Structure formats: structure tokens, C-alpha cells
Amino acid sequence: MKIPFDKISGIKVLKNERLSKYTSLHIGGNADYFIKIYSKKALKKVLHIIKKRRMKYIVIGAGTNLLVSDKGFRGVVIKLYGSFKEMNKRGGCFYCGGGVLVDTFLEKVRKVGYGGAEFLVGIPGTIGGGIKGNAGAFGRSFADVTEKITIINEKIQEEKLENEKIGFAYRRSRIKNGSIIISANIRLTRKKKKEINAAMKRNLARRWQRQPTGYSAGSFFKNPPGCSAGGLIAECGLRGERIGDAEVSRKHGNFIVNRGQATALDVVQLVRKVKKIVREKTGILLKEEVKILK
User: Fold this and answer.
1) In a 3-state reduction of DSSP, which class is residue 102?
2) Residues with catalytic roles
3) Pair 55, 100 in one domain
4) Where are the beta strands (DSSP E) in 168-270?
């Protein structure tokens, strides 16, 4: 069967690629097409074909905050490489491609003595994904350091958005699922490397003190207003609750861990059970922070 993307340069197309290799939960069936894209021009061409053929598609970064169905994804999965992983400094602002990993970004700005984003240390994922979901920790988030972004919108047009137009809110933004963040300008300030290192070390220690190791998608539920999702789950006696190889972490109630052989169905059933019990006991309906891809 002819691959619809075979005439586009600057991409690598994999058919029936297993998505568990690309997710932090290590769960997920095959995608019809998995496309590695290395340039903006190639990305636009791929999107035009997708739109013309009315194919489903999704862009993934580091595969965190994502649960993929055991049946996989009947469509196209896009992952950004090449120019989307470039980064350079412009005054006190850092231009980052949407595919730059958060930890790579932090290491590069640390080396040149710029701080203000130390709260991101230990957060897995990419700059694009982090901005779209307004990732953060310790009371701060990407909203605090993002000056502007460039997206390719649903009409396959480039669009620049200043901070206030991004629509940042708790663990979300107004960036639509059909739009792709291709670059961002992150505004930081001059800081002594010793201070940056100390802050990163302190934040990382706090993070690992509270969070489990192993395969997970990070915090599974959003914190309800005024309380902690992990705290509610612990109060309901659900830490250690298990279905198949999916388990509510014994260390932190808001983490669901794949103990090695968990399926997406195991996780989904466990999530339903947790939500049901928490609502019965507290009256609070937990909402997923993790995107469930079917």
C-alpha cells in the first residue's frame, strides 16, 4: 500500500509503530503512521495531506501526561525533531523550538547564567507540551516565563500569540488540540550559577521526596480548588489500590504506576474506581490531567 507521505522530504515515516516506546507509562498499541518531522516546511506539507484525507492526528512530545489505548491510534502521530529542537539566546529571552526537552532547556540556560525557571526542574516533557498544558510546580508555571509563542493553527497558518493571548489557566491553555506549538520565547533573568544550582537541587529533592519512581504519566488528576487530588485519594485509603499491573502509588496518591505489564484498560478501570470512591466519600469529582488517547 502506498504511503501518502512518501514524496515529502524532511520526514521519517514509520507504519504501525508501537506507541508504548514513546510514552512515559510504557503503554499503548500501534499508530497507523508515526512521523518524525525535521522542518517547518515538512510539517506544513504533512498537515496538508492529513487535512485533505481527513485523517486524525496528534502531536506528542516526550509522551508524558498521555495514556494510549491498547488498540493504538487510527491516524497519524507526529513527533518534532530537527529545527524544532533548536534553541538560541536573544538578550534575556530564549528562543526554543517546540520539541526542546525541558531538562535540556534548563541545562542550557543554567550554563549561561540565566534563572527564573528552576521550578521546572524534574518535569518531563517538551517546551511545546509544557506550554500547552501550562505545566509547573511549587506555585509557578510556564505562564510565568513564557513571553510569546508561534503556532501552526488548524488552518495550517503560522500565528504568533503573546502571553495574554495564550489563555493560560491551571494546567491548561486555550491552544486547541489541532494547533501545534512550533516555538516559544522564554523570558529569564541574570542570576548567579551558584544560586541557580542550589534552587534546582532543592526543587529536585522536594520533587523526588514526594514522587514515585517507575513508569507513570505524572500527576494523573488535576487538583480540585482548595485541595490536593493526591491527598483526597490517600484519605480514601486508595494508595496501593491495584488493577492488573496498574497501581495507585503508595508514595503519592495522584500517581498511577505501571508495575511492568499494565495495559491501558488496567489504568482506565483503576481511574474509574478511584474517581467513584473519591466522589462517594468526599463529594468531589476528580478530573483527569492526563490525556487519554483512543
Assistant:
1) helix
2) 171, 219, 289
3) no
4) 180-187, 189-190, 215-219, 242-243, 246-248, 255-258
